[in-house]
Amino acid sequence: MHDLLPHISESLSHVFGSIRYFVPEVYLTLLFIIVLITDLIFGKRSAQLCRTIACAGLVLIMFKDLQQIALVVDGEHFIFSNMLLVSRIGIFFKLSIDVLSFVLLLYFTWDNKLNAHQKGLSDLYSITIASILGLHLMVMAVNLLSIYLAIELVSLASYLMVAYRTENAFSTEAGLKYVLFGAASSAIMLYGISLLYGFSGSLDIVFQSSIAQLSKVNPISSSFAVILVLIGIGFKLSFVPVHFWVPDVYQGASTPITAYLSTVPKIAAFALLTNFLPPFMLASSWRGFDIGIILSAVGIVTMIAGNFAAVMQSNVKRMLAYSSIGHTGFALMAVVVLTLQGVSAITYYLLVYSAANIGALALASYFTNETGAEEVEHYRGLGLKYPIASVCFVIILISLTGLPVTAGFTGKLFVFSAVYAVYQQTHNIWLMLLMITGALTTVVSLFYYLKIPLNLFLKRKEMPEISGIKSMNLLILSIIVSFMLILLGIFPDFVLRYL
Amino acid sequence: MNILTILLLVPVLFGLIIILTPSSLRASFKYITLLATLIQLGISIWMYLHFKTGAAYGGINHEDQYQFVQKLPWISLNLGSAGKMQIDYFIGVDGMSIALLVMTSLVMVIATLSSWEIKSNLKGFFLLFLLLDMAVIGVFCALDFFLFYLFYELMLLPLYFLIGMWGGARREYAAIKFFLYTLFGSVFMMLVMVGLYLSVTDPATGNHTFNIIQMMNPANYSAQSVFSIAGHQTILGMPARTVGFVVLFIAFAIKVPVVPLHTWLPDAHVEAPTPVSIILAGVLLKIGGYGIIRICLGIFPEVATTGAFWLGQLGVISILYGAFNALAQKDLKRMIAYSSVSHMGFVLLGIASQTAEGISGAMMQMVSHGFLSTMLFFLVGVLYNRVHDRGINHFRGLSTLMPKYTAFVMIAFFASLGLPGFSAFVAEAFTLAGTFRSSSVNGLVPYWMAVCGSLGILLSAAYFLWTLQRMFFGPESLKGGDVWKIALTDLNLREKLTLAPLAIIAIALGVMPSLVFEKINDSVLSLIQFLQLK
């Protein structure tokens, strides 16, 4: 005990020194408390107030994120005794999470079904802020313990969000399924973490020394442990084979919640993956299986399974759920190469995918609000009644497919170039297979994405005159998203030059 | 401002005007579009007249020999270790593109004139039409692969909606089939494009570049790169450059279309409304041929030479298969669609021969077929608009009922079947001459292919003349009886004004082929020289 005394002051000063790298998260914590208290004090009528506070707070946090860039000009910093990592790319991940969450917070009340919830939405705002805090931690986590805590924080918040409004047996089932799957995958991940800790004697997994320790155990056991942890992360990413919860949950949850779940946690999980993987993939002392091959195989299977399953769907949200699985597979391609270019390609790809997915789901909300349409079939002939929304839908879906002139195309192009650049040096056959699958599934994805324009415009149906547009906000949101997608399609360097 | 940029911006500008014009003035949309296409035609004719010829303007692999060039830096990204990504807004024309550009502009005017038949949703139709117009012009001007690909893909969406919303009974099927086929080709083209971009560095700046002309110079490939000639790299066990060529060729062959990748074409043509059929046959098929010449031959010349036999083979199969199918068709539009497959086979055969005659013939065939297929589809549209039927055996003795119409049909048919004095004759004669000469000059294409090509001409005479005899001659007999007889009025002024220039061009190009040859000759010679050097 006495031996440790001299270290206390050093540790404390290290902790205090770390705080200045932790400002956005501190503000997020404060924001969470403020929103929670506002909800408690003002009760049921507080929804509007909570929303204002949450949104204003997020703007402040984005500003704080930007200020952090000045702190990383001299390189990455490990803070809180190597628990968290502040890096330039991490800040961009956080910034995109915050920007997208801001849009999503605004979007919550615009969905009539969610807004009609009798309990009000005030709780939802505090849950969302807590979840954003978890996402921030996920982006920064480099220690097994902090990884686990961050994922759990996000998971708990997500469980609440999914089950926030359960209108029928289907969504109740979806909520329960999500909790069960989530709990199981957390347990698996925790098992993997404990194995890794046992093998290496350290929770600081990103350091060479712990990898060197790992290399002393049987490679099969250490690989097994890593795979267990990957399953836990994969649950958030929804890659095959841990994707089973996705279609039901996305379909069952309220549309804005689906938009939330399908975008920001994915960005955070990919950020986590780019922190977690390098020691296993790049370190020469790693003796286990080639994680790159495992991820490539997972990526290929995920692309194929997600895209082909989406072809068979008739519910719009379910189709988008499967398509988001396909997009995860595509993004995994860039994770496999894990170069600087790969990481910046993945940041851009995810940002563009998330924007487009939020736009698509906002339009799904829009059509549900206006006409009650939920199935693709119900969109029949709506294109001529709601021309602006339908044209935006087409642009957004084209971006999701990855055709020019939209940001989705440039995103795909950058991922392909990142992978190709590595292929050119290594001639790794898996990379070629990944690219071929990526190209093939793009064609498949066109087939189901086009079902929506097909029904909107090509199929005809007589219907009564519409009585004015009710969801103006959603329409404006989707117009902005489509405009951004085209703008980034023509001038991708607006964003890319910073990545 | 650069004239090509203006040419590209005209449709965008008029598209904006249409967006801003309220729907109550929807009758004016077709005039706005017509004005746009006429301005384009004027610009392209001006360019044609000011296009300089001579050995110093050959183009192909010499960047300084292109004309009306504009090159602006567009996307420039620092990719760290991988160097800088350099994408330019780089447009320009050489002999190959100028001929097709003028042809396209004229076909667009005709297509607009035939859009008079469109009655529903005019705003959407003309907006998509102008977007498509911009994209096809862009494809013929772009000299940066990224830009080329952008325009190439940009054509798909407007076409999907144009076929799908204004098409016939099976329009949904035809539209999605067309879209999927073309996209299948082009996503793999994207992979090759990325591979090429990472292989090639611009000697001036040292960056990786998408510049097509730099891709033609073997010295610009870094030794370790996938597509380096000296590197002999492999992809999945096959030589990388062969894979690259084949992938690009398939993408363009789908567009041409080459048998067996042609099955989207009859469906798309039959279901599309007349203006879209005209654009499809008149312009889009040429993009395939143009792409093969500019990109496949330009970037992978040595593979094109070793594979010339197979290209010729596919060309011959397309010629014969298309012709036999055309003979068997009962629907007039389908018959013409298959005749397109057959005629576009000559383009491939001419390219495969790699002789000056062959490639000139292929270019001429593209220009000539552009005008003739436009005329043919317009003529089918005339008939279909009146009675909503196109069955060949549902009509008989139309010549007494519609004498002027019959006269134009006869011009179009005789021109298409290669009667001397018309443009197609010159084109096919040159192609076959090149094919015959090939075995003695470079030994790429055997004699029998030329013989089979000639057989194709014979077959085309058979199906055109047989159709003419069945539909227009003999005693008058119509499936629809007297109702049809009243509906089948002869051509009106608009239709005559549309058809007359096409007929004149068909004859003019037949009598004075130098109108085209003079402009393309330097580029053709330059291409041959380039192919021999490799």
Topology readout:
The complex is a heterodimer of chains A (499) and B (534).
Chain A: H1 5-19, H2 23-42, H3 47-68, E1 77-79, E2 84-86, H4 88-108, H5 112-115, H6 122-140, H7 144-162, H8 169-200, H9 208-214, H10 219-237, H11 245-252, H12 255-276, H13 278-282, H14 291-311, H15 316-337, H16 340-371, H17 387-401, H18 407-426, H19 429-449, H20 451-458, H21 472-490, H22 493-496
Antiparallel strand pairs in A: 1-2
Helix pairs in contact in A: 2-3, 2-6, 3-4, 3-6, 4-6, 4-12, 4-16, 6-7, 6-12, 7-8, 7-12, 8-10, 8-11, 10-12, 11-15, 12-15, 12-16, 14-15, 14-19, 15-16, 15-18, 15-19, 16-17, 16-18, 16-21, 17-19, 17-21, 18-19, 18-21
Chain B: H1 3-20, H2 29-49, E1 67-78, E2 84-93, H3 95-114, H4 122-141, H5 145-154, H6 156-166, H7 171-199, E3 208-209, H8 212-215, E4 234-235, E5 238-239, H9 240-255, H10 264-271, H11 274-299, H12 301-306, H13 308-328, H14 332-353, H15 356-387, H16 398-401, H17 403-416, H18 423-441, H19 447-472, H20 481-487, H21 493-511, H22 514-533
Task: Write a structural description.
- The complex is a heterodimer of chains A (499) and B (534).
- By secondary structure, chain A is mainly α.
- Chain A has a domain at 290-499.
- Chain A is built from 22 helices and two strands.
- Chain A has helices spanning 5-19, 23-42, 47-68, 88-108, 112-115, 122-140, 144-162, 169-200, 208-214, 219-237, 245-252, 255-276, 278-282, 291-311, 316-337, 340-371, 387-401, 407-426, 429-449, 451-458, 472-490, 493-496, and strands spanning 77-79, 84-86.
- A two-stranded antiparallel sheet of chain A has the order 1-2.
- The longest helix of chain A has 32 residues, at 169-200.
- Chain A is globular, with a radius of gyration of 22 Å.
- Chain B contains 22 helices and five strands.
- In chain B, strands 1-2-3 form a three-stranded mixed sheet.
- Helices cover 70% and strands 5% of the residues of chain B.
- In chain B, helix 3 (95-114) packs parallel to helix 15 (356-387), helix 7 crosses helix 10 and helix 14 packs parallel to helix 18.
- The longest helix of chain B is centred in the C-terminal third of the chain and has 32 residues, at 356-387.
- Chain B is globular.
- Chain B is mainly α.
- Chain B has a domain at 307-534.
- In chain B, 61% of the residues are buried.
- Classes of the chains: A mainly alpha (499), B mainly alpha (534).
- Chains A and B meet through helix 16, helix 17, helix 18, helix 19 and helix 20 of A and strand 1, helix 5, helix 6 and helix 7 of B.
